Amino acid sequence: MSAMSQTTASSLRGRIGCDVRSGHYAVPHRYRLHLSLPCPTGLEIAVTHSLLGLQDVLPVSLLPAVPDGPGDGYAALRPLYEASSHQHPGPAAAPVLSDGWTGRIVSTHAPDIVRDLAERFGGAGPELYPQHARHDIEEVGRLCEEDISDAAQRAGRLGIGSPAHGAALDTLLLALESLESRLADRDHVLGGEVTAADVHLWVTLVQLDTVHRWHLDAAAVQRIAAHRRLWSYARRLAVLPAFGSHLDLDGIARRHHAHCRGQEAAGAAVQIVDWTAAHPSGRSVTPHQH
Where do runs of H (alpha helix) occur along the chain? Predict the structure, then answer.
């Protein structure tokens, strides 16, 4: 990585501090989120925002499902990027947390944004990052990213008969089994209350069913669907407005088909969850544009 790209990356990873000395501190109506709900990071931030009840504190601008700028960026975000990083070399990508006082970007790093929403603005909502559970939240996040999402992508990209395909699918199924076991005696993945781990896992399961299964064979999808406790949990969360009301199923499909160059497999016909039935107000239309 060049010195310029390091500087640019660090300049777009500001944090919300706890007091005025931090520069960026929690003030109602100062900041704005710019999100595309069909993007998993945008969906995770939107669910967090709703769980914390921040609708009247931190407004949200919704972007189209499919980016309309160069390099999968958004034309509407380009002025923010230019104000924040002169001649910004990369795409004007979402998500973005912007500062209305300065007209610049605070952060484009989704994990930092989610954490700052919960820890700096989240006084009225659930404690999404309880002190005693932080290690477990990080572990569930790693499991979702590496052993579910990344493994599903590898399994879908590789030939069905190849050893690497089998290894990736085994990693995915082992992760699902681990999470299935966690839910044997509890309502949420870390206990009785919703945490950031549930938000991350739910978004991961949405992506697994609405995106990744399109490139898996039917037998693989049937094995994934066999984790009934896990998918029942996903449906149960989808009924909650903070989760299901942000689903843009049509947008997810359009975003996937706009970016994907892989071959469709037989698993595309094996839907695991009827997300519209799980939350009738789940969006099947395009969200309001920026």
Answer: 3-11, 40-51, 78-84, 110-116, 134-142, 151-157, 163-182, 196-210, 218-225, 228-239, 241-244, 249-259, 275-278
Give kind and range of the element (H or E) at residue 55: none
Fill in the DSSP letter of residue 20.
G
Quick one: CA dihedral 175, 177, 180, 182, positive or negative? negative
Coil, strand or helix at 67: coil
Distance between CA atoms of residues 45 and 58, nearest Å = 12
| Helix or strand run (H / E) with residue 62 | strand 60-62
DSSP characters over 82-114: HHHSTT--S--PSPEEEETTTTEEEE--HHHHH
Spatial CA neighbour of 240 closest among 126, 130, 129, 151:
126
Q: What is the pLDDT of residue 265?
A: 83
Tens-place pLDDT, residues 181-203 = 999 999 999 999 999 999 999 99
C-alpha 2/C-alpha 88 separation (Å) is: 14
- Global pTM reads 0.91
Classify residue 212 as exposed, middle or buried by CB count within 10 Å of its CB (0-12, 13-18, 19+).
buried
CA distance 108 to 22: 18
Q: Note whether 34 and 290 are within 8 A (CB).
A: yes
Cα(230)–Cα(198) distance, rounded to whole angstroms? Answer: 11
Token pair in block for residue 178: 């681990």
